[in-house]
Design goal:
The protein is of the alpha/beta class. The protein is built from 9 helices and 6 strands. The protein has helices spanning 11-33, 58-61, 68-75, 77-82, 97-105, 122-125, 131-135, 146-159, 165-172; strands at residues 3-4, 40-44, 50-55, 88-93, 110-115, 139-141. It has a 6-stranded mixed β-sheet with strand order 1-6-5-4-2-3, sandwiched between helices. Helix 5 (97-105) links the parallel strand 4 and strand 5 (110-115). The structure holds zinc ion. Zinc ion binds next to helix 3 and helix 5.
Length: 177
């Protein structure tokens, strides 16, 4: 399995993707405004309709696992179970190992993200050529949409302004250094 990029997405799909990535970034902005790690995600049905949007809530839930992607998957588990490989997940930042693994377990059709995470990004930490990953038909696409990517990275910049900047450098990797 490979991670797809801009060149692999046709124009109508890209327009659709950009709209939902903007929505995911808007959720990340809301998380940041509330003092939480600035990530957001959106779950979309096979018909292209929005199912739900969610932001990171690590601060209030006092949880390391309050990632918006995982929250959405758990909230809509029955729907995903009934409609395998039809729903899509859009994330402001590349989903982590946990959320990407859960997305494949939940048999999502597509996982699309705005900005790469070179530190905890799932696509760097899982074996894309493993038999488990290859047994899943989940399409991975990212980074996509320069505008959403820049907005997502700007939120991370602001969040880490008074925190450990080494983590921020690790997330950005070589792309932004
Ligand atoms: Zn996660």
């Amino acid at each position: 399995m490979f991670v797809l990029g801009l060149a692999d997405v046709d124009a109508p799909t890209l327009r659709h993707d950009i709209g939902f990535l903007r929505m995911a970034v808007s959720e990340a902005r809301s998380a940041f405004a509330d003092g939480c790690f600035p990530t957001g995600a959106v779950l979309v049905g096979g018909n292209g309709d929005l199912i739900s949007a969610c932001r990171n809530d690590n601060r209030h839930r006092r949880s390391f696992l309050a990632h918006p992607e995982l929250t959405l998957l758990l909230q809509h588990e029955q729907l995903l179970h009934a409609h395998p490989y039809t729903c899509s997940l859009y994330a402001s930042l590349e989903p982590c190992l946990m959320c990407l693994g859960a997305s494949m377990m939940a048999r999502l059709g597509r996982v699309v993200w705005a900005a790469n995470d070179h530190w905890a990004g799932g696509s760097k930490l899982i074996q894309l050529n493993s038999s488990f990953v290859r047994s899943r038909r989940t399409e991975l696409v990212g980074p996509l949409c320069d505008e959403a990517k820049a907005a997502s990275v700007a939120l991370l910049d602001s969040y880490f302004e008074s925190r450990d900047r080494r983590v921020l450098s690790a997330i950005k990797g070589h792309e932004h250094s």
